[in-house]
Amino acid sequence: MLRYDAGQGYPGPGDPGPAQRGASFFGGGDTPLSTLRQNLTLPRRASQFEVSAWLGGYASQQDGARLSVEFLDSGGTPRGLVVLGPVTAEERSGRTGLHERSARGTVPPGSRTAVVTLQLTRSGGGTSNDGYADNISFTVGSR
Ligand SMILES: [Ca+2]
After folding, report:
1. Separation of 24 CA from ligand 1 center, angstroms?
2. Comparing C-alpha atoms, which of 136, 119, 134, 133 is closest to residue 32?
3. How far away, in angstroms, is 116 Cα from ligand 1 center?
């Protein structure tokens, strides 16, 4: 976790990002790849999903954040995959910050588990892995 008041070129209160951004966000640290993963058991009646996240990076560097949701059946067989990001340096207009990405759809039939994975990737340019993420949300509902 990094704080929005960390300075040193990291995203701050005045940079593009969520309106309600709290005090901290996820950053990649000093390693080429940082991964956070959460396995969620889906309610039996879940038929619709919505996923959103604010993803970003540093200046013109291509370090980035990618959020995926993989749906698995009871045997662990993949039923579907949704990917958000990464937000490229071009999409950020070369400016440090985070931008919202979202997707919604139908939960693939037979899905019992959703695996939410955040990957923060360094693509050269110093030791700092400047993939950033905040306000990650995954919700399901029934129609
Ligand atoms: Ca970097």
Report:
1. 19
2. 119
3. 24
Average pLDDT of the chain?
97
| Position 60 confidence tier, pLDDT thresholds 50, 70, 90 | very high
**Topology of 2-141 in CATH?**
Jelly Rolls (2.60.120)
> What is the edge-to-edge ordering of all strands in the sheet holding 48-57?
2-3, 24-27, 132-141, 48-57, 97-106
- C-alpha of residue 46 to centroid of ligand 1, in Å: 39
Every domain of the chain and the residues it spans = 2-141
Q: How confident is the model at residue 126 (pLDDT cuts 50, 70, 90)?
A: confident
Lookup: tokens for 45: 């009646």
The residues near 106 (Cβ < 8 Å, ≥ 6 apart) are 47, 48, 49
How far away, in angstroms, is 62 Cα from ligand 1 center?
8
Distance 101 CA to ligand 1 centre (A): 21
Distance 16 CA to ligand 1 centre (A): 18
pTM comes to 0.96
Determine how β-strand 2-3 pairs with β-strand 132-141.
unpaired
